[in-house]
Amino acid sequence: MHCYEDLVNCLSCGIILIGLGHLVHHRKTQTSYGRHMVLSPPARTVPARLAWFLQEIPALLAPLLLMFTSHKPSITGKHLLLGTFCTHYFQRTFVYSLLTRGRPFPLGVMVAAGFFCTLNGFLQGHYLLHCAHFDEEWSADYRLFLLGLVLFYVGMAINIHSDYILRNLRKPGEVSYKIPTGGLFEYVSGANYLGEIVEWFGFAVATWSLPALSFAVFSLSFIGPRAYYHHRCLRHSQNAEQSCHSTLILPCQTYPTLPYSISE
Prior knowledge:
This protein is mainly alpha-helical. The chain is 61% helix and 5% strand. The strands form two sheets. The protein has a two-stranded antiparallel ribbon with strand order 1-2. It has a two-stranded antiparallel sheet with strand order 3-4. The radius of gyration is 19 Å and the shape is globular. The protein starts with a helix and ends in an 8-residue tail after the last strand.
């Protein structure tokens, strides 16, 4: 397949603008999601496990289909980076989605997320397979590449471990929120979000590309406000004990706590 460079650049810039637009729009209001979800009576929802599976799997299938239908010679660097991207979405599709105990999703949120995952999966796969240039000496200066991969897998480990902590706060059937402890939750109030942000900025460093950077900026713009509103809810709650957490990545502060988790 030919490299559609103009399309790649337009999609990448569009993703950045959408992310920044979301960040500006949600400075004062939180997205209807998880604990902050407000549904009108006729709103349709999808069970959390099914919603996560359906919205995440396009980001795994799109690059795999591109890779299996590509007739270009196999290059280690491209497939290693694409495999790194797919590793995240394999875990989110076949592990996280089957274990999550979250609330049902609004149908519209699931459809929008599925559309973005399809678009982003195509963008990252097409760029790495058909546009990225890795000559025979691609590993000669591997410092940024290795740094990016280390950041990605460290972030992924943080994200998975934090999800494990959040998931085990609740007994089967429980939907109430609780304060997480352990792991990086001892230092930050959004350890699961921090891990995912580190992941995608690590991926951007490893690929050193505009598409990967656009996705990292998009992730920060969407996840950052969510973490902020969770943290603000904890800080401004009343009739609760004092607990020490940070914001997202800043030093520890003291704020009142609620029986809430930041898992959603």
